Amino acid sequence: MTIRNYFRLIIENKHGAQAGWFWRPWLWLIRLMYESSVNLRASLYAVGFCRSKKLSIPAVSVGNITWGGVGKTPLTLYLSRFLLKEHKVPLILTRGYNADEVREYQANLAQAVIGVGKNRYEIAKRLLKKQKADIAILDDGFQHWQLHRDLNLVVINALNPFGNGTLIPTGILREPLTSLKRAHMIIFNDVNLIDRKNFETLRDQVKQLVPTAEIIEAQREPIFFYQAKSGGRIDVDRMRGRRVTTFSGVGTPRSFQLVLSKLGIKTIRNFEFSDHHAFTARELKEINEVCESSQSDSIITTEKDFFRRRKLITQIVDPLILRVYVRITVGEEILKDRIRKLFS
Fold it and tell me: Which residues are ATP-binding (predicted)?
């Protein structure tokens, strides 16, 4: 078990975190310090002591307020494809904490400009001197106060929107819920994976917090599977009834499992690792062995996991990769019109 997973078990009050009783008081103390720093930073920008820098092109932030995956990368891909269809070149700015997102962008968006680094303003300025781009998209940009955003999109995973409602490290919130007031649009992802009444309660809760924001609904749409080594595609309908072994290291592994379940795929064995986990040869060999002993038909993983350790995963496991797109089910034209206004 990784240190990150250990503390996540403590945060979520789950079994398996030995001596959790010892760490919780310290985590609460750290939370108070973290919350004070978050509030201080917001205040410095609010009163004008610190100022955000503005690019020569419009900037859109795709962000969230929680620790863990909500679907920012698929949404960034969706927005970039839309812009390219509109004959506009997106400039994707990512801090590059993890190489999997960068590789995923490079593999799927050959025509986009991609900038990686901590100081996104300087990176964007440097790239714009060399290459043409029409709109900047900040991947995980909601907390990046240094750069001015013309449109703030906040993604909320409907399966686990706010955890226990407290900030890191006693909860999964990166900012207080009141910070949602900075959002221009709230995009609920995975809305098809929870009960509709539960979603409507969540939607109304958020609407009370930020009544001026547009509400968008989205879900992950399975497109096809492809073999890691050959690249050969398999239609999702052909996988119905298959018994599989799965592995993933993503922020919301439950979403991955529910998507497979809705496709009629039965998971016999499942390996879950921490978000952005760097798989080792030993782990991948174990996955292979379990697949064989459980008589699974295939091994399946996510595209993000595949790009993280592409060569090693291909050599040892050669799994099926699930390609998913984001599909906007409610408010798509509202979102597109808002983007169009930025370059009209």
Answer: 66-73
